[in-house]
Amino acid sequence: MDLIEHFTHLFAYDGWANQEVLAGLRTAGTPLPQALKLMAHIFAAERVWLERLEQKPQTLPVWPEFTAEECSRQAAGLSARWKTYLAGSSEAELARPVTYKNSKGESWSSRKDDILTHVITHSIHHRGQVAAVVRAAGFTPAYTDFIHSIRQGFVK
Fold first, then answer.
1. Residue-wise pLDDT tens digits, 30-51
2. Domain boundaries, position 61
3. Which of 80-94, 124-138, 141-155 has the lowest mean pLDDT?
4. Angstrom distance (rounded) from CA 106 to CA 40
5. Quick one: pLDDT at residue 156?
6. Residue percentage of the chain with pLDDT more than 90
7. Which residues pair with 99 in a beta bridge?
8. 7 with 86: CB under 8 angstroms?
9. pLDDT tens by residue, 64-102
């Protein structure tokens, strides 16, 4: 598996896991504002990083106020955008740095493959926080372990 295939695989997992969490939040049947806030942050941060990679202006704050419906729209759109981005990239391109400003206005330069790794791990971290919120509210969180997605054939 080359690097593009590897990241395509990881972003397919990311999209699946985000959908699983959103479905679990809908199943809970009661608003869980902190969980929704964390999911909104995941989608906004993914969009911000994609815009940085594409050298486009930032269109969202990193902590937006999204409804459950907006989270669902963001999830669907982001999966497609990541797939398109990766399909148009090469391994050599991913090894190149990109310069951007962080949310504090500080200028940084990072390799694109490092940014992609950050996006995946950042999302996993916050989905873990969502799971803790869901469990604390008395519900069973979505099972989004990477290996589970592979074993069950959810991500190929």
1. 889 999 999 999 999 999 999 9
2. 3-151
3. 141-155
4. 23
5. 78
6. 93
7. 109
8. yes
9. 999 999 999 999 999 999 999 999 999 999 999 999 999
Radius of gyration, alpha carbons of the chain: 16
Confidence category of residue 139, pLDDT binned at 50, 70, 90: very high
Residue 156 lies in a domain: no
d(CA 14, CA 33): 22
Return the amino acid letter for 137: A
The CATH number given to whatever domain includes residue 36 is 1.20.120.450
SS3 149: helix
Cα separation of 134 and 85, whole Å? Answer: 32
Residues 6 or more apart whose CB falls under 8 angstroms from that of 140 comprise 24, 134
Q: Rounded distance, CA 150 to CA 120, Å?
A: 16
78, part of any domain:
yes
Structure-block tokens of residue 54: 């594409």
Structural domain tally of the chain?
A: 1
